[in-house]
Amino acid sequence: MENSTELRKVVYNLLLTQIQFGAYRCGDKLPTMEETSIRLHVSIDTVRTAYLKLKEEGYISLSKNVGATVKVNYGSQETERFIQSFFALRKTAIIDLASAMRPLFGNAQWTGLKNASAETLRAIESLSSGEAVAAPYAMLEHLNQKYSALGNTLLMRLVWQVFMFMHDPFFSIKENLWYFDQFADYLPEVLALCRHKDWPALRVTADQAMDQLSLALNRFYASKITMPPPEQQIAFAWSSYPKSQLCYTFAMELLIAISRGVYPAGSLLPSQQALATQRGVSLSTARRALELLGSVGAVKSAKYVGTRVVPFDSVTENSDFTNPVLQRRLLDMAEALQAFALSCREVSLLTLSSLDGASASGLCEELKAHKRWRRGETLPYFILDLITKHAPYQAIRTIYAELLRQHFWGYALLGMKGGQEAINATYDPYFDALTGALEKSDYTQFSNTLEGLMLYELRSNVNILSRLGIAGVENILVPTESET
């Protein structure tokens, strides 16, 4: 995990919640900083900052010889108030996130387990055979093992955030630890299915585990949380970077405008001040967005001249692939493509099935209009953006919108995919298959086609990054269509 101010806040809030919920009572010792660092997969500096803040605010004492000891003494009524308030504030978000888990992560978990190494399977086995990791951290460790074969650090940051928002608070209540009795039985079953390569049964078992957790959370709210949720609740949020940056959204909007010919090749973009005024953003946001466009070769700035749009066939040569920042962002892009490839079939099927006929027809017309722009390379972003906007769960909309930010970086690679005519020839069959499926209301075919498109995107981009020698791309698993 990355070390940042936001990360420190999350760790601090988690520890404070555990104290307020009675997981640690007055006089109890917290795990050592080293133990917490290992359990939460964060740096020791991040944990130290959280412990020091707990000490400063009077929740714990901290000494070299004794370690961290809880100082506050909450009675049962105070503990109950903390629990009621915490979960009432997050009711909509937690129930929504629990419902979105299977479409978002079911296929990724299954694929990760299918490709798990013998070493990973032994690590999972150790979780079910000993007391090395306490609940609920055993679940976090298990999640890390499930996804490890995917080689996707971006996805793991997301999984970590989901765990901290939903799993850990729920399992920090002692009454909810009964779930781990079932969890202990689940791990040996998963191991047996992996070793026997019974992939259909593994998929059923993994999906059932997610459904059971969602059911447990709903039952918990129905039977335990009596406090009415306030008008303003806390939403689930995730930023693929330590801090959410508006400049990425702004840069993506400008890039789409360039792709649609609003700003033709060779033309000058409006000034930074004009862009900031038009879009209602700060001058620094506009400046940073233009810098991002420059890093992917879309524009070139010259003093006293302005920022000029680079012709399509010159984008790649205008990009600096030796830049470590661009290299890391290109890896982020590939990891986001993998996350889409592993989830888009179920997410799109769920989304389309939730729409009425008129809305589905509207999507079809938008897709046909998009094809007429003759920029086939924008199809993956465009169709995923439509799915994002119409997805029935807020968690899907939040996560997909963030993953779409990473799609931006792939613009730097366009020159390696042939001329515009060749690119359109590649994407036209996908356009036709997607619109044809929508016209027939065949949402299963639509979802299968979209998955095929995203697997193609992932495979082609990983191949290009490999040719460029981008370190780390070799770790990204590219599943075949038969695997998904």
Major β-sheet, in short?
2 strands, antiparallel
- Give me the oligomer status: single chain
Shape: globular
Distance between the termini: 27 Å
Low-pLDDT regions = none
Return the structural class. Answer: mainly alpha
- Identify the strand order in the major beta sheet: 1-2
Helix content: 55-70%
Mean pLDDT comes to 90
Enumerate how many helices there are, as a single number. 19
Strands, total number: 4
Describe this structure in words.
It is a single chain. This protein is mainly α. Helices cover 64% and strands 3% of the residues. The chain is built from 19 helices and four strands. The strands form two sheets. The protein has a two-stranded antiparallel sheet. A two-stranded antiparallel sheet has the order 3-4. Strand 1 (60-63) and strand 2 (67-70) form a beta hairpin. The longest helix is centred in the last third of the chain and has 30 residues, at 324-353. The radius of gyration is 24 Å and the shape is globular. The model has no long low-confidence stretch (mean pLDDT 90).
Explain briefly what this protein structure is:
The chain is mainly alpha-helical. The chain contains 19 helices and four strands.
Which keywords apply here?
3% strand; 4 strands; single chain; two-stranded antiparallel sheet; 484 residues; globular; mainly alpha; 19 helices; two-stranded antiparallel ribbon
Write the layout of secondary structure elements.
Elements lengths: L4 H16 L12 H8 L3 H13 L3 E4 L3 E4 L5 H14 L1 H24 L3 H12 L7 H11 L5 H19 L7 H17 L3 H25 L22 H14 L12 H8 L3 H13 L3 E4 L3 E4 L14 H30 L3 H15 L7 H12 L3 H14 L12 H20 L3 H25 L17
Antiparallel strand pairs: 1-2, 3-4
Helix pairs in contact: 1-3, 2-3, 5-7, 5-10, 5-14, 6-7, 6-9, 7-8, 9-10, 11-13, 12-13, 14-17, 14-19, 15-16, 15-18, 16-17, 18-19
